[in-house]
Amino acid sequence: MGKHAQQLKKRKRQASQQNGSAQSAKKLKPATDHFPSPESRSASPSSSLISPEEIVTTVLTLETLCENPELLANRDMKDLKRATFALHRVIAEGSTLGSSLTSKISTALQDYRFTDALIFLFEMYTRRLPPKLGALQRWVRECDATSSADGEIRDPDAMKCLDLILRIANTTSQDPRSIGNIDGGSIITRNPVWVARPPIDGEINIWERMQRGSLFDAPPPKPYPNFKAVHHVPAHLRRPRNLYPSTVWGSSPDAIRLTPTPSRPRSPSRIDVPGVPGAFMVLDVFTPEECLQIVQAAEAIGLEKDEAAEGSAKMKTSILARNFVWLADQPFLDHFYQSILPFVPQAAPITVDGNGGGKVRGINARFRVYQYTENQVYRPHIDGAWPAAGLDKETGEYLHDSSSPEDPLWSRYTLLVYLNSDIPKDTGCTTFFLPSERVGVMEATSVRPIQGAVLCFPHGDTQGSLLHEGSAVGADGGKLVIRTDLLYEAKGFGQFRPPASVGVAQGGKAEEGLGG
Ligand SMILES: O=C(O)CCC(=O)C(=O)O
Ligand SMILES: [Fe+2]
Q1: Distance (Å) from CA 344 to ligand 2 centroid
Q2: Within a domain: residue 263?
Q3: Transmembrane stretches, by residue range (predicted)?
Q4: Structural domain total, the chain
Q5: CA 471 to ligand 1 center in whole angstroms
Q6: Is residue 325 classed as helix, strand or coil in its secondary structure?
Q7: Do 214 and 361 have their domain in common?
Q8: Domain annotation covers residue 442
Q9: Which ligand is located closest to the Cα atom of residue 419?
Q10: Which ligand is nearest to the CA of 509?
C-alpha cells in the first residue's frame, strides 16, 4: 500500500473517531464520489454539509495531486480541476467580495462615475479577482470609449477604466507589484497601422463601384437567385428591442460562384499581427471576384438597419452598421474552412478552469455582413462565443444552435472577412487594445483591411480574448466585412455558452442576428 493510501486510511480512522461514529466510517465514499451520503452529512458536528471524512479524503486527494502533478493531465481530472479553480476563486474573493465589487463597478460605470469605478476596479486588480465574461463585456460597453476617425479620445477617464478592465481580465499574467500610479498623461499609445501587405493588382474597388452606381453590370434580378429568407424576427420581438427587423438569408450551393483555379493566383498564407497575441491574418482566402459577388448579393437583397430601441445600449449606441445576415451553404462553408484550416489553432485553448481543448470543427454558417460608412464605428468590445447556427435537417427550420447535444460545437475564435480595401487611408481598421507596460496606458494596434483576407483572433473567454473595435471610417469611405466564428468541439469541456448578459454586447448587434 502506497504512502498516501496508508495516510488516507489513518486520517479517515482519526476523523471517524473524532466524529464518534464507527457507523459513518463504514459508509465512507470513494474520493471520486462528489456527493456525501445523507448519513455522513448529518454525522458531522462541524458542518451539516460536509463530513470530516470527506474533508480528509479531499485534502489527501489534493495533496497527492500536488505531489504528482502529471496526474492532472488526465481527462478524468476535468471536474476536479474546475471545482478547485472555483474554490480558489471563492477563497480569494473572501466570500462575496468579488461579486459586490462587480456590481459596484457596474453601477458606477452605468452612472458615468468613472473615478469611483476606477477605485473599485483598482481594488479588483490588486486582489487579482477575475471577473466573469458577461461583466467584462458590460463594463467595456459602459465605458463607451470610442475614438473618432482622427484618433481623438472622447473621455480620458473612461479610457483609464478600460485600461484597468483589460488588466483585470489578464490577472494571471500580471504581477500586481508592478502597479504604478494611475496618473495623467497619454492614455493610448498607437502603433503604426499594421498592413499585412501593400495593395496588389487585381483588387476590385467595391466601395468606389458602389458610389459610382456600377456595382452590377446589369440590374440584379428580383428575387435574387439562390438566396431565400429562412428566418425573420420583427423589430418588436428582437431582444434587446430594436427599431428594425432582422432576417436571415440562406444561400443554396453556387449562390457565390467560386472563382476557378487559374484566376486564383495565390494560395492562402498566414501572417501574425505583431504585438497582438493570438491574432493573425490569412491572406488570399477569397478572390476579389468572390468578394464582389458577396457584396452584390447583400446589396441586391438589402442590408438592414440596426438601432437599439431602449436601455443603456441605446444611450451609448454607435452609429450602427447596416447588415445582411447570411446563412452560408455547405459547399461555400467547406471551401472557406478548407482554405483556413491549415493555419488556425487545431484545438481550443485550455483555460485555467479546465475549459477548452476541443478540436476545431468548422465555421459558423451565420455570417453577418456589415457595411460601415463615413464615421461609423463598432465601439470597443469583447466578442462573445456562439453556437453553430443552421437549418433543421428534417423541418428546414432555422436553428440558432444546430449541433446535436451529443456533439455540441461552440466558437472560440472570431473570423472577419474583409470584402474591400478601398477605404480612406488608415481608417476603417480593426483596432486591438492591449494593456501597455504602464498602468493607465493602453496600446492600440490597428489592422488595415485587405480584400479577401480573414482576420482571426480568440474570443469568448476572459483569458486571451481581445478587446477591439471596428474603427471609424474616414470621409466618403465605406467598409464591407463579414463577421463569423470558428467552431470547436465543446463536449466534455463545458459549453462556452456566454452568460445571458452577453446578449447586449453592442447596441443591437449581439442578439439573434448579429455579432458581439
Ligand atoms: O469591423 C471590424 O473591423 C470589427 C468587427 C467586429 O469586431 C465584430 O463584428 O465583432
Ligand atoms: Fe468584434
Answers
A1: 18
A2: yes
A3: none
A4: 2
A5: 9
A6: strand
A7: yes
A8: no
A9: 1
A10: 1
The preferred substitution site among 137, 326, 378, 485 for testing ligand 1, maximizing ligand atoms within 8 Å of CB, is: 378
Total residues belonging to the chain? 516
- Residue 393's CB is within 10 A of a number of other CB atoms, namely 9
CA distances 83 to 34, 75, 78, 79, Å, are 11, 14, 9, 6
Residue with CA closest to ligand 1 atom 4: 470
What are phi and psi for residue 88, nearest 5 degrees? -60, -40
Q: How far is ligand 1, taken at its centre, from the CA of residue 353, in Å?
A: 28
- Predicted confidence pLDDT, tens digits, the chain (516 residues): 455 556 555 555 555 454 444 333 333 333 333 333 333 333 334 446 788 888 888 989 988 988 888 888 888 888 888 788 777 766 655 555 556 888 889 888 888 888 888 888 888 887 777 777 788 888 888 886 555 555 565 677 888 888 888 888 765 444 433 333 333 445 778 899 999 999 999 999 999 999 999 999 999 999 999 999 999 999 988 877 888 899 999 999 989 999 887 777 889 999 999 999 999 999 999 999 999 999 999 999 999 988 777 654 444 445 568 999 999 999 999 999 999 999 999 999 876 566 778 999 999 999 999 999 998 888 888 888 899 999 999 999 999 999 998 899 999 999 999 999 999 999 999 999 998 888 778 889 999 999 999 999 999 876 788 989 999 999 999 999 999 999 999 875 544 444 333 332 332 334 343 456
Read off the C-alpha cell for 414.
472570431
**Same domain, residue pair 68 and 211:** no
Q: Relative to the CA of 479, which ligand 1 atom is closest? A: 1
Q: Which atom of ligand 1 is nearest to the CA of 483?
A: 9
Tell which atom from ligand 1 comes closest to the C-alpha of 383. 10
Domain that holds residue 337: 206-269+284-423+474-504
HEC states along 133-198?
A: HHHHHHHHHHHCCCECCCCCECCHHHHHHHHHHHHHHCHHHCCHHHCCCCCCCCCEEECCCECCCC
352 and 85 Cβ atoms separated by less than 8 Å: yes
Ligand 2 center–CA 22 separation, angstroms: 60
Q: Could you give the angle at which helices 78-93 and 97-110 cross, rounded to 10 degrees?
A: 70
Ligand 1: which residue has its CA nearest to atom 2? 470
The answer to the question of residue 478 being in a domain is yes
Q: Are 483 and 334 contained in the same domain?
A: yes
Ligand 1 neighbours, Cβ below 6 Å, are 378, 383, 414, 416, 430, 468, 470, 481, 483, 515
- pTM for this one? 0.73
Ligand nearest to the CA of 465: 2
Whether residue 415 is contained in a domain is answered as yes
What was the ipTM of the complex prediction?
1.00
Residue where the block lists cell 499609445:
189
Atom of ligand 1 nearest to the CA of 471: 3
Which one-letter DSSP state was computed for residue 304?
Answer: B
| Vertex 84: Cα angle to 83 and 86 (nearest 5) | 65
Distance 495 CA to ligand 1 centre (A): 23
